[in-house]
Amino acid sequence: MSNAFTDRLRGHGPLTDDDVQLLTSACHSIRGHRAGHHLIREGDRPDPVFVMLEGWAARYKILPDGGRQIMAFMLPGDFCDIHIAVLEAMDHSIVTLTKAKVASLPRQQMEALVEARPAITRAFWWSQLVDQGVLRAWIVSMGRRKAQERVAHLMCELYIRMHNIGLATDNQCEMPLTQVVLADAVGLTPVHVNRVLQGLRQAEVMDLRSGSLTILDPAKLARIAGFDDNYLHRRLKRAA
User: Fold this and answer.
1) H or E stretch at 144
2) Model pTM score
3) How far apart are CA 8 and CA 105, in angstroms?
4) Quick one: DSSP state of residue 79?
5) How far apart are CA 27 and CA 119, in angstroms?
6) N or C: which end of the chain has fewer CB within 10 A?
7) Which helix (H) or strand (E) holds 25?
């Protein structure tokens, strides 16, 4: 039986039934976590590979003044870098944002799978290239996009990612992010994020409330964001 992890990897390359069975079996150590649970903290020694099976998590760093910068959202099917064990200590923290189910894979077992199964290796490479593309898009947003563009771009990206794993339908998906969390991701204050969300709602472009995102006008939202999802390999529907 597949899971969110194998479903995501299958989206990045063909896997045999044996490949899927091996990956599924590797995810046997599963634990449920509450929101706000740290899977690992900055300074900890990297060991297992964490795989998100259900729920949301975030990678972040704390600045000297106590501010938090979120650097990535982890959705079902996402996993931590398998090569980070070469470092002596983590350079960032990972915390759950919602209730979550997380599998812990011994790093040696994961590395053995990658070395023994070429199809799994290619799927991992592809997945990590997509993650790097997401990071580059966030850097561009922080450096060059205005506040409304940043928020709109993030909403486009998260919707597409949710759609790619089968968790978005009819231009709607779960979006369990508070305005404080969004602010930490886009480098704005919660008050500024609130104004941007109100403006997008009043323009009848999108609506974010009660943990759910509804995209009312996908083409217009993509134009506002300057969104091109070639780094995600899925495209919002364009206006005819």
Assistant:
1) helix 118-144
2) 0.92
3) 16
4) B
5) 18
6) C
7) helix 17-26
